[in-house]
Write a structure and sequence with these properties.
Structural class of chain A: mainly alpha
Distance between the termini of chain B: 48 Å
Largest sheet of chain B: none
CATH architecture of the largest domain in chain A: Orthogonal Bundle
Number of domains of chain A: 2
Shape of chain A: flat
Distance between the termini of chain A: 52 Å
Largest interface: A-B, 17 and 21 residues
Order of helices and strands of chain B: H
Helix content of chain A: over 70%
Number of helices of chain B: 1
Oligomer: heterodimer
Shape of chain B: rod-shaped
Strand content of chain B: under 5%
Strand content of chain A: under 5%
Radius of gyration of chain A: 20 Å
CATH superfamily of the largest domain in chain A: UbiA prenyltransferase
Helix content of chain B: 55-70%
Number of helices of chain A: 15
Number of strands of chain A: 0
CATH topology of the largest domain in chain A: Tetracycline Repressor, domain 2
Chain lengths: 302, 49
């Protein structure tokens, strides 16, 4: 166990500030943003494209820092988050707030210079939605927190699309919808495994408020919405046969794993029964990555 | 009256490293804005400020 009393804390390093930016979340939005940019019509400019994706990444980091500033009390209680820089005593809350606000401003300004008002406005909205609507309001007040809050994690492909074209259409909205409906089964599978943690931190996650059985049913229900929706880009012409094959096969397997979660006893407290939820969580990441990678591959190798 | 804060050599080294990263970040931002400007001028577009 790490000793986190003041006298034993190692000096703060740049990596602690980097950890405030949630690098793993950043890497996901960079990827979905990149796919949104490449999939959008037109040639685009590599420098402006790079600047737009970088602005999205920094904005995600800024939102992460604001989240850690506000949620330090919750993070200190939960096993998954108690080693984060603030609860571990390596960074002050105020520093995280200042870093979050500064990077928010820099990312939106950069997007405005590189891509114009629509992309910059969407980026500002995304930060606001994650930091204020999700973190400060929904997370502590409703079990629908991650459903509605998931919008901020879903928007990057549309922001990148708007950065390249200056406009939005049905196709980028479909990409947003796919991530939006993917988030609940993905996150609820994880929350089934961490129910006790959420209960201890008094976060009204679905397994805490409605119980594991209801959560498992929700996972299955959302997977039924997601699988056909993920096929929609083929119908609009955004995606081709390779994507279609992955969407069809992946969708069937996604629904199958969700059905297994639904029929299981995951989240009831017996770790041995949690495997279907763990499988669902693991596969959900691979599924989303594969869909977007297929879309990217179709554009790059077309 | 507050006591002057005496920092250890280890803390001083950490502070120097943090400041170096900060300087590099600011430099990177300056270069980014420079290259965005060049790309905009080359593309004949306006810089919407």
């Amino acid at each position: 166990m790490a000793d986190v009393t003041a006298s034993h804390v190692r000096p703060t390093s740049a990596s602690d500030y980097l950890a405030l930016l949630k690098p793993r979340v950043m890497s996901l939005v960079v990827f979905t943003g990149l796919v949104g940019y490449v999939a959008a019509p037109g040639a685009g400019d590599p420098v402006l494209g790079f600047a737009a994706i970088l602005a999205i990444a920094v904005a995600a980091g800024a939102a992460g820092a604001l989240n850690m500033w506000f949620d330090a009390d919750i993070d200190a209680v939960m096993t998954r988050t108690r080693t984060r820089p603030i609860p571990a005593g390596r960074v002050d809350r105020e520093e995280a707030l200042m870093l979050g606000l500064t990077l928010s401003a820099l990312s939106v300004v950069t997007m405005q210079i590189a891509a114009g008002p629509l992309a910059a406005g969407l980026l500002a909205f995304t930060i606001f939605f994650y930091a204020v609507v999700y973190t400060m309001w929904l997370k502590r007040s409703t079990p629908q927190n991650i459903v509605i809050g998931g919008l901020s994690g879903a928007l990057p492909p549309a922001i990148a699309w708007a950065a390249k074209t200056g406009a939005l259409s049905l196709d980028p909205i479909l990409l947003v919808a796919i991530i939006f409906f993917w988030t609940p089964p993905h996150f609820w599978s994880l929350s089934l495994l961490q129910k006790a943690d959420y209960a201890a931190a008094k976060v009204p996650m679905l397994p805490v408020t409605n119980g594991p059985a209801s959560t498992r049913a929700h996972v299955f229900f959302y997977s039924l919405l997601l699988a056909p929706l993920a096929f929609a880009p083929v119908l609009t012409g955004l995606a081709g046969a390779i994507y279609g094959a992955f969407a069809a096969l992946g969708g069937v397997f996604f629904v199958f794993l969700a059905w297994r979660v639904w029929r299981s006893k995951a989240g009831e407290g017996d770790k041995a029964q949690d495997k279907p939820a763990r499988d669902m969580f693991g596969f959900s990441i691979l599924y989303l990555f594969t869909l977007f990678a297929a879309l990217l591959a179709e554009r790059v190798f077309a | 009256m507050s006591e002057p804060v005496i920092i250890t050599p280890e803390e001083q080294k950490a502070r120097k490293r943090r400041n170096l990263w900060l300087a590099l970040s600011i430099l990177a931002f300056v270069l980014l804005v420079f290259f965005i400007t060049i790309a905009k001028i080359r593309g004949g577009g306006e810089i919407p400020l």
